[in-house]
Design goal:
Structural class of chain A: alpha/beta
Largest interface: A-B, 31 and 24 residues
Strand content of chain A: 15-25%
Mean pLDDT of chain B: 88
Number of strands of chain A: 10
Largest sheet of chain B: none
Number of domains of chain A: 1
Number of helices of chain A: 10
Number of strands of chain B: 0
CATH class of chain A: Alpha Beta
Number of domains of chain B: 1
Low-confidence stretches of chain B: none
Shape of chain B: elongated
Order of helices and strands of chain B: HHHHHHHHHHH
Oligomer: heterodimer
Largest sheet of chain A: 6 strands, mixed
Structural class of chain B: mainly alpha
Number of helices of chain B: 11
Shape of chain A: globular
Helix content of chain B: over 70%
Radius of gyration of chain B: 19 Å
Distance between the termini of chain A: 32 Å
Strand order of the largest sheet of chain A: 6-7-8-3-9-10
Helix content of chain A: 25-40%
Mean pLDDT of chain A: 85
Distance between the termini of chain B: 17 Å
Order of helices and strands of chain A: HEEEHEEHEHHHEHEHEEHH
Radius of gyration of chain A: 19 Å
C-alpha cells in the first residue's frame, strides 16, 4: 500500500487528535470538552447513546461543522485552518447511506472516482463491485437495492481513493446480522491494511468486536477511554459462576440460515 | 478556487442531468401548467381581450416566463433532496471544489428549462403562434430567457438549501408563477386600476415580456430591454450572493 504510506506523510503524531472540543446548538450543549487521540492504523470506537454527540464530533472532524472551542487535527492537519488538506486525507460514511438513488451502483462509484481525480474510474468501480458482491446489481438503479446493498455501496464509495483516515458513523445501524458481520469483516480488513478507522456505534458488542480502543461519550464528555481490557479493569473483578450457556438469538438465526445467501 | 473546479462540476452535472433524463416527468409537469394556461387563455378568455394583434402572439412571452418559474422549482426540490439524503455532506467532505455541486444544479436547470421552453414554443406554433423575427431577434429572445432562467435558478437555490420540508422547498415558485398575471403578459396594463397598473408597469415581468414581444414582432425594443436586463442581472447578483451565504452556512 504505497499510496497509503505516501499519504501518511505527517506520520509522526496520531491520526486524529482532539482537544477540548465544544459545540452547542443554541442552549443545548452537545459537546462539553471532548479529548481523545486515535493512533494510526487503529480502529477507534466512539460509543454512546443517541444524542451523546457522536455524529457532531464526526461532522467537526470531517470539516462539515465548526466547533465553538477546542482544536482537532486529522492526519496532522487542523480542521479549521487546513480544511482542504483534511478533506484530502479522509473519507466519510455518514449515518444514512448517502448514495444517489437515481444512478446505478456502478455510476455512483464512477462518480466518486472521478471526483477524486483517479485514473480509470470504470476499472475502479468494477473491482469494488466485485469485492462487495454487487456485480449482479451493478447497472440497476440504487433505488431498487436492499438496505444491506445500499450500505455496502456506501462503504465501497468511501474506500475509493485509499484515504488514510476513514470515519464510519454508525456503519451497521439498520442492517441485518449477516450484513453487520460483513461490514465488521471489511472494517477489520481496512485497519489491517493501515487505514485509521474512527467509528461511532451504540452497540456495545460492535465496539467490543472491532475496536482497538473504545471511548465512551456521555453527555458531551468522554467519560472512559481505553482498550477493552482496560475498561474491564474499571469494574470489580469478575466472579466465577457456572451457568448454562444459552445460544443468543443471533447465533440461532445465523446457524439456521447457514451460509445460504 | 480549486484547480479541479471544471472537471468536478462536469462530473456532478452529468449526475444531475441523469436525474432529468431518467425522470422525464419533471419536464412534462414543467410544461403542463404553461400549456394549460395557454390553451385556456387563447381559447377561453382570449376572445374577450383586445390587444390589437393575434392573442397567442401577445401572450406567449408571459407563458414562457411561467414555464421558467415552474421549471426552477425542481432545482429547489433536487437540491433539497441532496441535502436530506446526505449526499451533499458526502461531496462536501471530499477534496473537491465545494461550489461545484451548486453549479451542477444550475447548469442542469438551464438545460431542463431550455428543453421545456422549446416544447412550449412548439405547442404555441401548433396553436397558431407566428413570428417574422430573424435569427438575431430569436437569439436575443433566447438570451433574455436564459438570463432570466439563470437569475431565477439562483433564486431557487436559496429555498433548496434552507427549506424545512419538500413542500416549502417548491412553494416559493407559486408567487413567481403568479407574477406574470399582474403584468403586461396577458392584458395591456392600461386596463388596470391605478395602483395595480403602477405595480404592473414597475415589476420585472412587464419589461421582460415587452422586450420579447417587441423582438418577436420585429418592433424596436426601446428602453424596455435595458430595464429587463437590469432586473435580470440585479436578481441574479442578489440571489447568487444569498445562495452562496446559505451554502457556506450549510457547510460551516
Amino acid at each position: 500500500m504505497t499510496t497509503l504510506i505516501e499519504k501518511n506523510r505527517q506520520s509522526a503524531g496520531p491520526a486524529i487528535r482532539v482537544r477540548g472540543l465544544e459545540k452547542s446548538y443554541g442552549k443545548l450543549e452537545v459537546l462539553r470538552g471532548v479529548d481523545f487521540d486515535v493512533a494510526r492504523g487503529s480502529i477507534f470506537a466512539l460509543l454512546g447513546s443517541n444524542g451523546a454527540g457522536k455524529t457532531t464530533t464526526i461532522r467537526i472532524l470531517a470539516t462539515l461543522l465548526k466547533a465553538d472551542a477546542g482544536t482537532a487535527a486529522v492526519n496532522g492537519f487542523d480542521v479549521t485552518t487546513q480544511g482542504g488538506q483534511v478533506r484530502g486525507s479522509i473519507s466519510l460514511t455518514g449515518q444514512f447511506a448517502a448514495v444517489d438513488e437515481i444512478l446505478s451502483g456502478r455510476e455512483n462509484l464512477i462518480l466518486v472516482a472521478k471526483l477524486r481525480h483517479l485514473e480509470d474510474p470504470a476499472a475502479i468501480a468494477d473491482s469494488l463491485l466485485d469485492r462487495f458482491s454487487l456485480t449482479d446489481a451493478a447497472t440497476r438503479r440504487v433505488s431498487t437495492y436492499s438496505g444491506g446493498m445500499r450500505r455496502r455501496l456506501d462503504i465501497a464509495m468511501s474506500l475509493i481513493g485509499d484515504s488514510p483516515v476513514i470515519f464510519l458513523d454508525e456503519p451497521t445501524a439498520g442492517l441485518d446480522p449477516e450484513a453487520r458481520i460483513e461490514v465488521w469483516q471489511m472494517v477489520k480488513e481496512l485497519a489491517g491494511s493501515g487505514t485509521t478507522v474512527l467509528l461511532t456505534t451504540q452497540y456495545l458488542d460492535e465496539a467490543e468486536q472491532l475496536a482497538d480502543r473504545i471511548a465512551i461519550l456521555h453527555q458531551g464528555r468522554i467519560i472512559a477511554n481505553g482498550t477493552l481490557a482496560e475498561l474491564k479493569q474499571l469494574f470489580p473483578p469478575a466472579e466465577v459462576e457456572y451457568v448454562e450457556k444459552q445460544p443468543t438469538l443471533e447465533e440461532i438465526f445465523l446457524a439456521i440460515i447457514g451460509d445460504r445467501r | 478556487m480549486n484547480t479541479y473546479f471544471l472537471s468536478d462540476t462536469l462530473a456532478l452535472t452529468v449526475r444531475t442531468l441523469r436525474h432529468i433524463t431518467r425522470s422525464l416527468d419533471t419536464i412534462i409537469t414543467t410544461v403542463l401548467t404553461p400549456v394549460a394556461l395557454m390553451l385556456m387563455f387563447v381559447y377561453v378568455f382570449g376572445g374577450a381581450i383586445s390587444t390589437g394583434s393575434k392573442y397567442i402572439n401577445f401572450m406567449l412571452p408571459g407563458i414562457l416566463l411561467i414555464t421558467i418559474a415552474s421549471g426552477i422549482s425542481y432545482t429547489a426540490f433536487r437540491l433539497f433532496m441532496d441535502l436530506k439524503s446526505g449526499i451533499l455532506e458526502r461531496f462536501q467532505s471530499m477534496p473537491i471544489a465545494r461550489s461545484g455541486l451548486l453549479w451542477a444544479h444550475v447548469v442542469t436547470s438551464m438545460v431542463a428549462n431550455l428543453i421545456a421552453l422549446v416544447i412550449v414554443v412548439g405547442v404555441a406554433l401548433l396553436m397558431g403562434f407566428r413570428s417574422s423575427a430573424g435569427v438575431l431577434a430569436w437569439l436575443a429572445v433566447t438570451g433574455i430567457l436564459l438570463l432570466s432562467t439563470l437569475a431565477l435558478t439562483w433564486l431557487a437555490v436559496i429555498p433548496g438549501l434552507t427549506a424545512g420540508s419538500v413542500e416549502s422547498a417548491g412553494a416559493f415558485a407559486y408567487p413567481l408563477i403568479f407574477l406574470p398575471f399582474v403584468s403586461s403578459a396577458f392584458v395591456p396594463t392600461e386596463t388596470m386600476p391605478g395602483p395595480v397598473r403602477w405595480f404592473a408597469e414597475h415589476q420585472p415581468v412587464t419589461s421582460i415580456v415587452d422586450t420579447i414581444r417587441a423582438l418577436f414582432a420585429e418592433q424596436p425594443v426601446g428602453n424596455a430591454i435595458w430595464t429587463a436586463l437590469a432586473w435580470c442581472v440585479g436578481v441574479l447578483v442578489a440571489a447568487y450572493v444569498l445562495a452562496m451565504v446559505a451554502y457556506r452556512r450549510k457547510s460551516a
